[in-house]
Design a protein that fits this description.
globular; two-stranded antiparallel sheet
Length: 95
């Protein structure tokens, strides 16, 4: 997959629905996907209410794409949530 000329690795089969939702468009299913990831990570307090996939930079997408090549398990789900949250916090500070 290419984004702005950069080749990104494909996510594992388990990450595919999250990849689409967190990378390209935040749809009406976003809340359900976030909840599903929170349950997997056992991180009910992760808050990304005003997150929009369109706000991710190419670098952020690149980092997350590599993370999503792994199997979807508690550790990897937790790591992705933490990275998304950190990116989101940094973006909010820019405003």
């Amino acid at each position: 997959m290419r984004i702005n000329g950069h080749l990104l690795p494909s996510p594992s089969q388990q990450w595919a629905p999250f990849f689409e939702e967190f990378f390209f468009h935040t749809s009406r299913y976003y809340a359900a996907r976030l909840h599903e990831l929170q349950q997997m990570a056992e991180e009910d307090d992760a808050r990304l209410e005003d997150f929009h996939a369109s706000e991710l930079t190419d670098t952020q997408r690149f980092v997350l794409s590599w993370m999503m090549t792994s199997e979807l398990d508690k550790t990897h789900a937790r790591n992705v949530l933490h990275v998304l949250n950190r990116f989101h916090q940094l973006d909010k500070k820019k405003l």
